[in-house]
Amino acid sequence: MPDVDTAARAAAEAFETTRSATDAERAAWLVAIADRLDAAVDELVPLADEETALGETRLRGEVARTTGQLRMFAAVVTDGAYLEATIDHAVPDATPPKPDLRRMLRPTGPVAVFSASNFPFAFSVAGGDTASALAVGSPVVVKAHPGHPRLSRRTAELVTEALAAVGAPAGAFTLVDGFDAGLELVDHPAITAVAFTGSLAGGRALHDRAAARPAPIPFFGELGSINPVVVTADADAARGADLATGLAGSFQLGAGQFCTKPGVVFVPAGSALEAALPALVGADTPRMLTPSIADGFQTGSERVEAVPGVELLAGGPGSPAVAVTDVATLRSHADALLAEVFGPFALLVRYGSRAELAEALDDLEGSLTATLHAAPGEPVDDLLPRLEDIAGRVLFAGWPTGVAVTWSQHHGGPWPATTSQHTSVGATAVRRFLRPIVYQDAPDAVLPPALRESNPLGIPRRVDGTLRAG
Q1: Separation of alpha carbons 324 and 236, rounded Å
Q2: Catalytic: which of 51, 62, 222, 274?
Q3: Three-state DSSP class for residue 272
Q4: How far apart are CA 37 and CA 30, in angstroms?
Q5: I need a surface site. Which of 79, 123, 304, 310 has the fewest CB within 10 A?
Q6: Residue 355: which pLDDT band, with cuts at 50, 70 and 90?
């Protein structure tokens, strides 16, 4: 495994090739990686299960998600709309005169990707960050996660073999390892952006480090999220027991180690959901992904339960648990109660009136998701704008665990959920590793093909204010 300086320099050298590769060539790189991973699934899944204990069913599904998103990004760049190609022809007799201006998005350069612990395929070595950067021509240096080191190395070998087989330049993808390597990677002058999925504390430290460089770079961090759920009184009266079943399945899924796990649930006082939930909470101590995550789950649960006015509704130390409190306690102890507990833990918050519920929502910080369970036809104008203000994805009558990889998906939210307005899942994830450039009065022959007058790529473009299909 190369050192950071060697890997970053190789990535910078590869960028001279990747930046000019065609969309079709880069799409072929992604498909080759997907094919190689699919062919190795019977080898990779047992290895991943040894290191994570996530189970064969979950891991096979995650490999499929990973290869599916690689192929989706291949389709995104082949379509060409991601370039946002825009042309304004010259208008010499305008006041003032307007030159010929042609704008598009270009890759930023080498990207540092920090693997996540809880998705050893989809958010790791060959996950969405790697795929979306390679898709647009930004080479990738991945920092392996210590929670699955052998899987990381084997996956990296497969990615490297796949890229070499289809002619991608050496250095387009590299794996490095170790805590110090991560810091060196953020500091390295060849790195132009960082993508990170992990804890709020770790992400904030790296974010500040990226900003403190002599030449600061963008840091795209997905950090902590409590993913609030609101259950109206009418919804609880109509289907409170069913909602309890859905909540129990969601917050305990994968031992609660999902960034979209519902962590804080607002229920009406005396709710049927609260009454039904304790019988659905498991008693077994789950195996967590890493010792540090297990410790964080334990200390986080204890922090919440120690707040005066909080009761333990179900579960116990080290096992899935549900606590309950009221709005007044939540607002008085927001720092302790609204910090993410990563693991199978949920806090129910009883509200007495709709106005009290709305006031409590105003206190919440940003999350990846917010979920609203209301009765059919029930007015929610007092709640929906508040949920829109704090989340990147608002769900109705569902549960937030599970993030579909689609063209329209957005996986992000206001601070502290993420450090930017961009998504790490879905087609527009590529936008993180692109920057706009305008060519003024450039000869047609020197323009990138996407901006030439004849549109040789046949891509969608906006010309003189009118959107034209490819």
Answers
A1: 16
A2: 222
A3: helix
A4: 11
A5: 79
A6: very high
DSSP string, 86-133: EEE--BTTSSS-B--EEEEEEE---EEEEPPSS-TTTTSTTSHHHHHH
CATH number, residue 151: 3.40.605.10
Active site residue 365: no
- Confirm whether 470 is domain-assigned: no
Residue 255: left (phi > 0), alpha (psi -120 to 50), or beta?
left
* 423 and 305 assigned to the same domain: no
Give residue-wise pLDDT tens across range 260-298: 999 999 999 999 999 999 999 998 889 999 999 999 999
**What range does the domain containing 60 cover?**
4-223+418-463
- Same domain, yes or no, for 216 and 257? no
Kindly state whether residues 30 and 133 are assigned to the same domain: yes
Note the pLDDT of residue 318: 86
| 331, 391: one domain | yes
Q: Which of 51, 62, 184, 259 is catalytic?
A: 259
Catalytic: 222? yes
pLDDT greater than 90 at residue 470: no
Q: pLDDT digits over 386-422, tens only?
A: 999 999 999 998 999 989 999 999 999 999 999 999 9
Contacts of 181-186 with CB under 8 Å at 24 or more apart are 181/3, 181/4, 181/143, 182/114, 182/143, 182/206, 183/209, 184/4, 184/5, 185/4, 185/8, 185/112, 185/141, 185/143, 186/112, 186/210, 186/213, 186/219
- CATH at 284: 3.40.309.10
Strand pairing report for 321-326 and 311-315? antiparallel
Same domain? 216 vs 233: no
Position 324, amino acid: V
